[in-house]
Amino acid sequence: MKKLVWFVATLAMLVVLAPRHADAADYVGSKKCKMCHKNAFTAWEGSKHAQAFATMEKEGATGKPECVKCHTTGYAGSGAVTEDQKNVGCERCHGPGSGYMKLMMKKATYTTEAAQAAGLILPGKDGKFCTDNCHNSQSPNFKPFNFEERWGQIKHELDKPRAH
Ligand code: HEC
Ligand code: HEC
Ligand code: HEC
Question: Which of 76, 80, 89, 143 has its CA 20 to 30 A from that of 160?
Fold first, then answer.
């Protein structure tokens, strides 16, 4: 019995101490995307997504995870919201950036497929990503969602069109 207890305890220790899986990407914050994506950053900065946390402050809801969860990026669901987690940032829609950003830094070898494998999300233009994640009736301020119309408010693209 004693042996079993030790075995279980050792196993638990190993699980706790094991390095994080190499593929698990971390959130880096929208500011990190700015230097290479000026067009997208400017469009985002001027959009309501960049004001989503100011809304929480106005509503006195910064301490309510049930509200904060949709008005932030990469928020774990409890505790204080860090500066980089405030607002609906780039990574809310494109996935945590630590992995794919490294690939983007080597433009010559960059491929969309490798970036997606490293965590990049391309939400597409059918609006499903938006309604599945945020623009739905769980939001107390839900307004009917039309992708075309809303994309018009946040439209952004690569600084340099792809050379194919
Ligand atoms: C060092 C520069 C650099 C940084 C930093 C960077 N990117 Fe990129 N990004 C690129 C390059 C280069 C491409 C590929 C452009 C091409 O194919 O012409 C790209 C492509 C993209 C694409 C299109 C992907 C595709 O293959 O269709 C998205 C979306 C994107 N980046 C989002 C982000 C986000 C979000 C961040 C911040 C977390 C970020 N990028 C940070 C350089 C960068
Ligand atoms: C399921 C995600 C979700 C949850 C949960 C959520 N919100 Fe929101 N909230 C949104 C979205 C999306 C919008 C933008 C609505 C639109 O324009 O369609 C929004 C907009 C708002 C607005 C209007 C801001 C403006 O300037 O137009 C207020 C106020 C607000 N939310 C407060 C709250 C409060 C308070 C809570 C918690 C009780 C909360 N939200 C929970 C997603 C959410
Ligand atoms: C609310 C969600 C949302 C946010 C926030 C957002 N994007 Fe996007 N992004 C999209 C959608 C949707 C598209 C177009 C469809 C697609 O490419 O999947 C797109 C397209 C792009 C593209 C062009 C991809 C291509 O191949 O043409 C780049 C680059 C990009 N985003 C970067 C960024 C950066 C950088 C930020 C932050 C400054 C950002 N995005 C914030 C949803 C978002």
Answer: 89
